[in-house]
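User: Okay, second chain of the day. Same drill as before: sequence in, structure tokens out.
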Amino acid sequence: MPEVGPLISYDKTPMNETSPERTVPIHRRFPPVGQCIYCGDRDQLSGEHIIAYSLNGTATLPRASCPKCATITSRFELTFARGPAHAMRAAFGFKSRKGEYPASFPLLMVIRGVRQEIHVPLAEFPLILQLPLFEPLPAFLRGQRGVPITSKETVLVSLRENTSPTVLLQEIGRRYRAEGIEVPRVDHKSFARLIAKSAYALAVAEFGITNIREKFVVPAILGEADDLGTWVGSSRPLAGEQAEHITQIKTFTTPAGESVIVVLMKLFAALPAPGYVIVAASKV
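Assistant: Same drill. Structure tokens below.
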């Protein structure tokens, strides 16, 4: 299994940038939104984390998500957090609403020709995070809409310093005398929704819900459209930096004069992980 698929380069957009690139300090407090940022409902509102709580997100938009939409977004966030990222979260002490993490985690292995699930103690678990690579640019920036998200490549990132994913898998393979091991898989559609949700929430935090004209990514976030390839793309793996997550936000003007909000995001910034570019919304 390759550690990294073919690298994808990031091309500049064919649009005119109208605001300087800036890192948004998402640890700051934001005023209450007063309506669900997804559907507009104004009843029983709760706070909405910009980056998922399960991924150590701390910044919250107060009164910004209704119960129905909160259930939807929590579901796909937990698909990643309790799936391919579960052991990583336990190893690095990420926040968990359930409190303590389990002592072992399931790993699919082929032993004596039989594919089976083995529960491996955290101290022995091969800490490898699998992240998807998408097209290098969202289709919107190529003048297209209605494009589903696709991921033909993934990046395997080792969470043990100076040890490659291959070495980690070889070590666990020898320990359990396994002929094959499957790294916990990432659901690329759920992950793309997670990325899009964080980017859109960041756009609302930065510009305010009243300044959002068209909520580009919201139908896909809510599962009402299958067009995230229109709005989400990715970069090649980027070198690690001294930060937990990195977000930058820009505004561009399209040739048709539309002002759009583009978010650049790298989760797990300290790792050699991909970056993602999301066309989140248009501005009034």
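The longest strand covers residues 274-283.

User: Thanks, on to the next one.
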